[in-house]
Structures are given as C-alpha cells and as structure tokens.
Amino acid sequence: MEFDKPVTGGPCWTELGTNDLEGAKRFYAELFGWRPETDPRPEAGGYTMAHLGDVPVAALTPLYQKAQPVAWNVSFAVPDADAAGRRVEEAGGTVVVGPMDVFDVGRFAVALDPTGAAFQLWQARSFRGAGLFNAPGTLGWVELATRDTARARDFYTTVFDWSAESSEWYTQWALGGAEFGGMADMGDRFPPEVPAHWMPYFAVADVDAAAEVAERAGGAVVVAPVTVPDGPRIAVLRDPQGAEFGVHVSDMEG
Q: Which pairs with CB-CB distance under 8 Å and at least 24 residues apart come from 204-207?
C-alpha cells in the first residue's frame, strides 16, 4: 500500500466478524502481536480494538446477524456516508446496513457491490481508522475476488474515483497514483457457493515464519508462501474459526 494513513476513498480499517471472539484474540495476538481491548459498554456489543503498542490497527467483533459469515471486512474512508451510500446505489450496488452513527467516532454503512462483495463505508469523526499501515502486523493491501471484474471495475472507479490498471490476470487499484489494492478473477479457483469478497493482507517480517505460526496457533495455510513475479512474497492463511486473510512481506522490512 503506497500511503501510510487513511485517505479519502482508500481503505482505512479492517474488522473480523467471528463466532469465537476469545479464540480470535488469542490467535491474532500470537500471530501479529496484537493487544486486544474489548469495549466494556453493553451497547458496544463486544467490539474489540486490536493494537500494536498504543496504535489501533484492526478490530475483532462477534457476529451481529445470523446470516453474517465468519470473515474479514474492509472499510473505505468517505467524507459523507449518506452521500457515498447514494453513489453506491446509483452505480448498481446495494446499501444493506445504515448509514448509522457509531457513538461519536463516526458514521458507517455496509454495502454490496454489483458482483456481491460486501464492504463498509466509514465517515470519520473522532476515529479516522488504522493508525499505521504497511508495518509488520498492520494492514498493507486489500484485494477483491470477483467473478465479474469488468462490472466491479466500473463500479469502484465510479463510486470512489479509483484508477485501475489491468493485466491479463490482475488489476491494481490506485488513488492519485498511489496503489493500495487489487482485484482478481475468481474463475474456477473457488467453489460456486463462495461469493465475491474483499480480503485484507497484513504485512509481516517473514511470510514463511508467519505461516508456521498460524498453523501452530490452530490456523491453516490456504495458499502456501510464494513470491509473486515482480512482486512480494505472499501467503493466504485461515484462522481457527475459518476467516481467510493474506500476509505479505512488509515494505518497511525492505
């Protein structure tokens, strides 16, 4: 990711919805060194902020709806969640939750793109999002997997004013020339029942070591560590509750 703080239109936060909050706390603490803090207010619903030192980097939450899958979600920064929600619908997407206020920290909505991938809109007030990107244990890339890349490209470049540079097998998303994520065609690599989805990649100092720690902590390796041609070393992992996420070599580690 070629920026180091939340910017309008870019990814600003990532949250895990899980059916075992305590188990997720243990797993990610061991894997990334996160320090989880659960909001004690009943109305917060168990929302847990993960920190590196004193810096917020991600969140872990219980599942709030019966149909909600165990999965990581990605939030994108917008100046006005209501206006962004209207842009989503005008471009062919659907707003499924909100927009609604979250205490005094911001306003958010959950949306689906026209290909079925869920994402979140975040209008910051007192909380902008992750305090650090690209360092080991923090968000470093976001990736959309979809079966209709052409429709997704039209949608996101319209809603967020992203630019998209496509090769035969991958699309890179950018804002103002700064790349922050990509898009891959699901093709036949996923079972038909798996919907289009966004997935975060977290930076790590050593991808192979991270894969070993994940397995030792009860997770699994979905895509074994591999070096992308002209790119970083990556792997895709699965936590003990079934949520998948990627890891890649941290830019800050050279």
A: 204/32, 204/136, 204/137, 204/247, 204/248, 204/249, 204/250, 205/136, 205/249, 205/250, 205/253, 206/249, 207/233, 207/234, 207/235, 207/247, 207/248, 207/249
Query: Which of 61, 56, 26 lies closest to 46, judged by CA?
Result: 61
Q: What is the dihedral of CA 153, 233, 132, 195, to 10 degrees?
A: 40
| Mutual angle of helices 207-216 and 21-32, in 10-degree steps | 150
Residues 61-97 pLDDT 10s: 999 887 889 999 999 999 999 999 999 999 999 999 9
Main-chain dihedrals φ then ψ at residue 222, nearest 5 degrees = -90, -45
| Euclidean distance between CA atoms 245 and 237, whole angstroms | 6
SS3 letters across 172-204: EEEECCEEEEEEEECCCCCCCCCCCEEEEEEEE
Q: 160 with 76: CB under 8 angstroms?
A: yes
> What is the rounded distance in angstroms from the CA atom of residue 123 to the CA atom of residue 107?
5
* Locus of tokens 């580690």: 253
- Give dist(CA 252, CA 166) in Å, integer: 26
pLDDT digits (tens, 9 = 90+) for 15-58: 999 999 999 999 999 999 999 999 998 888 889 999 999 999 99
In sequence order, which residues have a C-beta less than 8 Å from that of residue 249 and are 6 or more positions away?
203, 204, 205, 206, 207, 232, 233, 234
